[in-house]
Amino acid sequence: MLCEAVCGLTVDVETRSVRGDPDDPFSRGHICPKAAAIFDVQDDADRIREPQRREGDAFRAISWKAALEQAGARIAEVQRKYGRNAVGVYLGNPSVHSYAALLATPLFNRAMGTRSRFSATSVDQLPAMLASLEMFGHQLLLPIPDVDRTSFFLMLGANPLASNGSLMTAGGISRRLDELKKRGGELVVVDPRRTETAQEATRYLPIRPGTDALLLLAMLHVLFAEQRVGLGHLKPFTDGLPLLQEAAQRFPPERVAARTGIGANEIRKLARDFAAAPSAVAYGRVGTCTQAFGGLTSWLIVALNAVTGNLDREGGFLFTTPAADLIDLASRTRDRGHFGVWKSRVRGLPEFGGELPAATLAEEIDTEGDGRIRALVTFAGNPVLSTPNGARLDRALSKLDFMVSIDLYRNETTRHANLILPTSFGFERDHYDLAFYALAVRNAARYARPLVRPPRGVRGDFEVLLDLAMSVRRHGGGKRGRGLGLTLRASRLLGARRVLDLMLRFGPHRLSLRKLLKNPHGIDLGPLRPQLPGRLGTRDKRIALAPKLFLDDLGRLEASLSEKPNGLVLIGRRALRSNNSWMHNSHRLVKGPPGCVLYMHPEDAAARGVVAGGNATVESRVGKVEVPVALTDDLFRGVVSLPHGWGHAREGAALSVARAHPGASLNDLTDEQAIDALSGNAAFSGIPVTVRKV
Ligand code: SF4
Question: Is the peptide bond before 160 cis (omega within 30 degrees of 0)?
Fold first, then answer.
C-alpha cells in the first residue's frame, strides 16, 4: 500500500507489529523498513483526523457538512467567475496506491471539467507512457521485465534495491535478481552512480546523466550493422523497422562514446551480448524518464527489446493480464490516452492524458491573464517538495484565492490550503493493488479487508472525492450534464468496493472479492504470457516501431553531442527508508545519520576545498541550499547527488518529527524550465549546479 512492490503483510494490530507474509505467493515474505512505519503514520499525533479550516494563521476543526459545503461553494464561485480552467487539480503519487482513489479520480476530474489538471506522472513516468501510447496505442500498456525468466537484464537509470521496483512490481526484487545471477544470467546496470543495485550487478557501466538515448541508438547501430536484428513473431504486425535503422545509422558508437562516457568497444560488446543472450530485457526507470531526453530514451528501450525479438516474449519485455484490468476498461470507454491535444496557457507545453506538465503549475498560478489558476484542489500530494522549483510553487500557492487539500497531513503544500479534508489510511481501509498488478512481473491478485476502524472524523478517498465533486456541481460549478450527475450519484451509492468486485468478475481471470477473501495470502495467476497483437490498443493492431514524434526529436539529441561538460551537474537519489516526501514524520525512518546528504566525487570535492562531513552550499539557477557532504568515488566525475523528498523546515507545516530532521529540498534546486522538450516531463537529472565549501 506504500510502494509498487505490493508485499503481502501479516499484521498484529494489538502489538502494532508488521511482518512479511511468507505464504504470499507473489512477495514470499519480503518486507522493507517502510512497512513497519504504516502504524507510525496511522497513529501519528500530527495526522489530521477531522476536516480543518484555516482561520488566519491557525487551523480549526469543522464538520464534514460545513467543509464540503464551503469547498463546493468556493470552487464553484471561481469557476463561474473565471471559467472552469481557473480551478486546478493536482494528484499526488499516493493516490495510485488506493484503489478507491484510482476509481474515483477519473469521475472527479470529469465532474470538475477543468483542463488545469496536474499529477506526479509528469515528474516521473510520463515518457514511458508516451512511448506506449505512440507505439502500442494505449498509454497504460506498459511492458514489464520478465525478471524471473530472463537471462540478461539491462537496467538503465533504475535502482530497485532502493525503490523496491518501479514500473516493475516485484516484491522481493533483491531475491529475484540473486536468482537471475544464480542461473547464470547477467545483470548490467547503466547509471551515473554505482547505486545499491549497481553494486550487485555483474557489469556496471557509469554513464553521463541524460545520455542514455545516445547509448541505446549506438547499440541499435551495432545490431543493424552486424545484422543481429530480428523482430521474431512481431514481424507481421510491426511497422517502421527501416526508419529505425536509418535513425540508428546516425549514431555509431564512436560518435557517442565521449558524450556518454562509455567506450565504443564497451557499447559494441553490450549490444552483442544483449542480442546473443537466450532471452534479454532492457528496462529503464526514473533516471531515463526524468531527463532532457526522457521521451526518446523510453521509446528506444522498447525498440531495443523489439528488434532483438525480446518484446512480448518469455524472459523479455511482456504485458500483464491483471485480474481487474484498467487497461481493458479504458479501452472500452475509448480512453486509450492522448498527447498534445491542447497546450498549457503560459509556455505552450502539451497535455498528456488530459494533464499538463507539473513543471508548469507555478507559472499557471502566478502569471496574470485569462485562464490563470485561482483555486486549487490537491489530493495526496506535496508538489512544493516534489515538483521542480518547489520554492516558486510555494510562493505561487500563497497567491491563490482558494485551496482545498485532501490529505493526512498539513505538509509543506497543504499548509497553504483553506480547507484540509482528511481520509482513512493504511490498515483502516480495504486494499487491492489495482494499478500495480498491471505492472507486476507475474500475474497475481490479493485483497485485504480493513483491520481497524478509522478515526471518526476521516472518510474514504472515494467518498470524499465524489462528495466534493457533487458539492461543486450543486453550487453551479464543474461540468454540467444530467448524465454526469446520475453517474456520480450511482457511483457513490455503489461504492468503490462493488465497482472493484465487478471489475474482477468481468476481468480475464473471472475472480471476485469473495474468491479473494477465501485466499487471504493472495492468488498466483501465473507468469506473464505473450499476447500480441491482441493486446494492442492501436486501431489496426500494429506496432509503430518508429513513430514520427520520436524521429523528429532526434535532431535535438544530435545537437547535444557537441555539448561539453562544464562544471557540476546534479542528479537525485532514492533511499530505502524514504518514500518520496511523505513518510519523514515516522521517527523510525528518519532516526540515525542524516538522510539528506550530498554525494560528491573526492576529486570534485578536493577541487573545491569541500571535505567529507563538512557542509557545502549547492546553487542552481533557481535556488541555493546548504547540506552535509559525503565523498564517494561511486559517482561519475562531475556529478553530485542529493536525495529527493526532504526540506521540512518551512513554517506552517505540522510535521514535528520531519521538522526535527528537515534536510534540504532537491526541488529548491531543480528548474521548472528544465524539461524534456518532447514530452514536457520534468528533467531532474543533470541540473547544472555550483558547489562551494561553507
Ligand atoms: S517494499 Fe513496498 S510494498 Fe513491500 S513492504 Fe516495503 S513499502 Fe511495502
Answer: no
- At residue 331, the pLDDT reads 79
- d(CA 628, CA 663) in angstroms, rounded, equals 9
Q: Where in the sequence is the domain holding 109, given as residue range(s)?
A: 47-123+326-525
Centre of ligand 1 from the C-alpha of residue 649, in Å? 27
31 lines ligand 1 (CB under 6 A): yes
Establish if 94 belongs to a structural domain. Answer: yes
CA–CA separation, 669 vs 682, rounded Å?
13
Using alpha carbons, list the distances in angstroms from residue 507 to 322, 323, 504, 538.
8, 5, 5, 21
Could you tell me the CATH number of the domain that includes residue 669?
2.40.40.20
Same domain? For 347 and 391 the reply is yes
The Cα 348–Cα 332 span in angstroms is: 31
Would you say residue 568 lies in a domain?
yes
Is the CB of residue 35 below 6 angstroms from any atom belonging to ligand 1? Answer: yes
- The alpha carbon of 65 and the centre of ligand 1 are apart by a number of angstroms equal to 36
Q: How many residues would you count in the chain?
A: 694
* Structure confidence by residue, pLDDT tens digits, 386-412: 999 999 999 999 999 999 999 999 999
Ligand 1: which atom is nearest the Cα of residue 9?
5
Same domain? For 313 and 354 the reply is no
pLDDT at 333 over 80: no
Q: What's the pLDDT tens digit per position in 410-458?
A: 999 999 999 999 999 999 999 999 999 999 999 999 999 999 999 999 9
Q: What would the pLDDT profile of 12-51 be if each residue is shown by its tens digit? A: 999 999 999 999 999 999 999 999 899 999 999 999 999 9
Cα 582 to middle of ligand 1, angstroms: 15
Instruction: Choose which residue among 10, 30, 97 to substitute to test ligand 1 binding: the one with the highest number of ligand atoms within 8 A of its C-beta.
Output: 30
H/E element, 306: helix 294-307
What count of Cα atoms within 13 Å lies in the side-chain half-sphere of residue 167?
A: 30
Q: Specify the CATH number for the domain of residue 175.
A: 3.40.228.10
Q: How far apart are CA 546 and CA 557, in angstroms?
A: 16
d(CA 221, CA 244) in angstroms, rounded, equals 9
